[in-house]
Amino acid sequence: NAGVTQTPKFQVLKTGQSMTLQCAQDMNHEYMSWYRQDPGMGLRLIHYSVGAGITDQGEVPNGYNVSRSTTEDFPLRLLSAAPSQTSVYFCASSYSGSGAEETQYFGPGTRLLVL
Amino acid sequence: AQSVAQPEDQVNVAEGNPLTVKCTYSVSGNPYLFWYVQYPNRGLQFLLKYITGDNLVKGSYGFEAEFNKSQTSFHLKKPSALVSDSALYFCAVRDTPLTGANHLFFGTGTRLTVIP
Fold first, then answer.
1. Whole-angstrom distance, CA of residue B56 vs CA of residue B52
2. CA-based, 20 to 30 A from B80: which of A6, A14, B69, B114?
3. Given an 8 Å threshold on Cβ–Cβ distance, is A108 in contact with B108?
4. From the list A56, A100, A109, which residue is nearest B96 (CB)?
């Protein structure tokens, strides 16, 4: 198993540009999520999905879109990048349902710099 | 609402000494508590979790954590620190699930430095 994979590892954007951060998992997990990590703020939830075709907003969703067409993939889209979106982005996945105890597994992260 | 507090931004400990990284939480129902570790330029790695049962939870790399319901704490501990334990540690919590949504609420992290 590759686990949770993310691409790219690093990206530089100009303000106003768009891009998609890719996330894939091969563990057949229903639940997938995107977090951003900023210094002194820990990780904050952007969007999440409990299964294909189902997505919902987290704590900091503004400026980001997601979709979940397959169980494996959960891309995060920045429609018009802003310097405030400079951050490290992590994708995570786990089993869902009643499994609150289920462990989330994280990808290696994407470091994004918006100029 | 769920929340987690890690009161120490930085913890320094000498190699071979015991270490403690503190975490307190707030949830409305039964807490599900997790510790993750992040090494430089890496993703988060799962260390251990408390769901129910024994208050002392043992995890990876010799780490353990003690759940204390009366003090709403879940401190991470290790009897003898290694230089390789130096990393950023995150405590996380989630409340009793209603919808199967499994997202976590994280603390701000504690940077552990083990001094040779």
1. 10
2. B69
3. no
4. A100
Q: How far apart are CA B22 and CA B67, in angstroms?
A: 11
Residue of A66, A76, A97, A4 whose CA lies nearest to B46: A4
Q: Given CB atoms, is A61 within the 8 Å cutoff of chain B?
A: no
| CB pair distance less than 8 Å for A109 and B107 | no
Residues A96, B102: C-beta atoms closer than 8 Å: yes
CA angle A74/A69/A108 to nearest 5° reads 15
Amino acid identity, residue A11?
A: Q
Rounded to the nearest angstrom, the gap between the alpha carbon of residue B97 and the centroid of all alpha carbons in its chain is 20
Are residues B21 and B12 in contact, defined by beta-carbon separation less than 8 angstroms? no
pLDDT tens-place values along chain B, 116 residues long: 788 999 999 999 999 999 999 999 998 878 889 999 999 878 899 999 998 888 999 999 999 999 999 999 999 999 999 999 999 999 999 865 555 566 788 999 999 999 99
